[in-house]
């Protein structure tokens, strides 16, 4: 489902943001639309997407939405094919959708482990597989992968989450090396205000994450601006890695 886009200026990028119904994805979609790009907001919660698209189009920006489950390979490919048919290209894919139900390994919450692997890692692979052939053919494009400070260090209760984020970072480096015409920024946020700790995981652990985020968390707009910086560089300049932490985060 999509809202009809307004005409896209030729110098604007067509940007697909996954996980755009809240938090960092929503802030990124808002920021990039305000910068003049055409933004496609994708996630499962259509009502939330429609609300943000309504705000943006009312303010004169160019945006539409697509219902998307990144764990469904066919769904990702269909959405990308539809967008390429509609706009002729996707210039930027922001692989942002993610989940973080934290718990100690010994709790053996296997369904949540699978969920993290499916959304945080497989979801990224599905997005890349869907956009890569056309980007390689056009010999340009940005694939922005949202990792985490959890892609740089491991802490108790975050073993599986960190494993998925380390994997996204490793995969991004391989993707970058193999595709010299493409740009593959990895953006690693620290504590950022969003809905990330609201679903699943050990209630005590998630409560502690929420408390820390409330105390020191960055606004999601700080991460959106880092993504805007990464995709705003002149051709040939690939911002490989940005880590954005609150000053108070250890
Ligand atoms: N907040 C932080 O402190 C922090 C720190 C480091 C890294 N990150 C990373 O930042 C990214 C965004 O998270 P956030 O903090 O903004 O949390 P959030 O507010 O919970 O946003 C997560 C987004 O992912 C989407 N999503 C979840 N499962 C999905 C699926 N199967 N298919 C499509 N979309 C799905 C959600 O939308 P629907 O539920 O509508 O599908 C939502 O829009 C994640 O990759 C997260 O790991 C966050």
TrEMBL record:
What's the protein called, per UniProt?
NADP-dependent 3-hydroxy acid dehydrogenase YdfG
The Swiss-Prot or TrEMBL record annotates one GO molecular function as: oxidoreductase activity, acting on the CH-OH group of donors, NAD or NADP as acceptor
**Entry's family note:** Belongs to the short-chain dehydrogenases/reductases (SDR) family.
Top-rank lineage group of the source organism: Bacteria
* Alphabetized Gene3D superfamilies for the sequence: NAD(P)-binding Rossmann-like Domain (3.40.50.720)
Entry keyword annotation includes Phosphoprotein: no
Domain (Ketoreductase) spans 13-194
**Per its UniProt record, what InterPro entries does this chain match?**
KR_dom, NAD(P)-bd_dom_sf, Sc_DH/Rdtase_CS, SDR_fam
One Pfam family here: adh_short
Query: What keywords sit in the KW lines?
Result: Oxidoreductase
Query: Can you cite an annotated GO cellular component?
Result: membrane
Organism, per UniProt?
Answer: Actinacidiphila guanduensis
């Amino acid at each position: 489902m999509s809202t009809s886009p307004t005409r896209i200026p030729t110098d604007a990028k067509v940007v697909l943001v996954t996980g755009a119904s809240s938090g960092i994805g929503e802030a990124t979609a808002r920021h990039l639309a305000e910068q003049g790009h055409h933004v496609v907001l994708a996630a499962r919660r259509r009502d939330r997407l429609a609300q943000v698209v309504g705000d943006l189009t009312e303010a004169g920006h160019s945006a539409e939405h697509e219902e998307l489950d990144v764990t469904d390979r066919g769904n990702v490919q269909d959405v990308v094919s539809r967008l390429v048919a509609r706009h002729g290209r996707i210039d930027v894919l922001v692989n942002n959708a993610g989940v973080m139900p934290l718990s100690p390994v010994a709790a053996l919450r296997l369904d949540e482990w699978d969920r993290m692997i499916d959304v945080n890692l497989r979801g990224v692979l599905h997005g890349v597989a869907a956009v890569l052939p056309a980007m390689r053919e056009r010999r340009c494009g940005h694939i922005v992968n949202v990792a985490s400070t959890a892609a740089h260090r491991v802490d108790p209760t975050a073993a599986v989450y960190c494993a998925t984020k380390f994997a996204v970072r490793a995969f991004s480096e391989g993707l970058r090396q193999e595709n010299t015409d493409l740009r593959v920024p990895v953006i690693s946020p620290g504590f950022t205000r969003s809905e990330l700790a609201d679903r699943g995981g050990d209630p005590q652990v998630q409560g502690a994450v929420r408390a820390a985020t409330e105390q020191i968390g960055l606004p999601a707009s700080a991460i959106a601006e880092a993504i805007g910086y990464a995709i705003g560089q002149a051709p040939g300049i690939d911002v490989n890695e940005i880590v954005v932490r609150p000053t108070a985060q250890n």
